[in-house]
Amino acid sequence: MSSFASEDESRAFFDDRFSHVSSDVFLEIEEEVFGTDYGATSWSTIDQIRTFISKMELKRKDRLLDIGSGSGWPGLHIAEEIGCETVLCDYPLTGLLEAKKRAGDDGMNAVMVQADGAALPLADAAVDAVSHSDVLCCLTRKAEVIGECHRVLKPGGTLVFTVLELSESFVHEGNRDHDFGPEYAMVDQPYEEMLISTGFEVEIHDWTDVFRNTAEKVVAARTSRFDRLAAELGADDAADAVSRSERNIAAIDRGDLIRRFYVCHPVDLDG
Ligand SMILES: C[S@@+](CC[C@H](N)C(=O)[O-])C[C@H]1O[C@@H](n2cnc3c(N)ncnc32)[C@H](O)[C@@H]1O
Questions:
Q1: 248-264, pLDDT tens digit by residue?
Q2: What is the DSSP letter of 136?
Q3: Which of 138, 160, 207, 248 should be mutated for ligand 1, with most atoms under 8 A from CB?
Q4: pTM
Q5: CATH H-level superfamily of 7-263
């Protein structure tokens, strides 16, 4: 795992990564493993995003907000499938520019916002659904982002997201350091509690098995194209990209790392 001294370094990592995601070797691996071609950097496969779509129950002309949208996965794909408006929010300009180009190529109605998910420049009750894919584990202010999701959602709206988590047993043993998973996987409070205290009702699904399977495919795809990956990223970063996934698989097998899918609705206080 890259070790980031601060969230700024984490953002710099993604900024750099989004300048490579549309290279031939990255796209080839993404299509083979994830079934998509948006420059994905999360673990969400096309089948899993189909589940996002079915849980969101969006209609044409509704508005979706995708936070930590990277180069457009999954926000642009969801919006295209449904025919809804989409707002994409992230920090790295490289990713947003890739997303803007893709939206233009696909003739889509999408707005890009360079902003912090913990301080969204959107009005209250501005969107019908919010999504994020493995974003909360890449930042520290998780409760603030969840609070913003709640604030910008219309009553009756839906928040769906995936996140990589350190297992309860790993945390209960007093561990805080980990050389697997994303840098900010540690939580001060379980997500379920955070969501409920924010005013959501929550449905939780364990997606660790698919995550493990996907990580194995990523290792195989990157290893078999290692020379091309090294030409794109440099040998050290290419080796790190393979070993990070290998460490994730080992951590899953030890029971230390999990990936969950959350479906959340604002509680109707009048209902
Ligand atoms: C694992 S990537 C996921 C990118 C993309 N959604 C995907 O599924 O491929 C996490 C994303 O979260 C973004 N991110 C990290 N901290 C953020 C913050 N405070 N506000 C908004 N986005 C943030 C990163 O820049 C990165 O694009």
A1: 999 999 999 999 999 99
A2: G
A3: 138
A4: 0.96
A5: Vaccinia Virus protein VP39 (3.40.50.150)
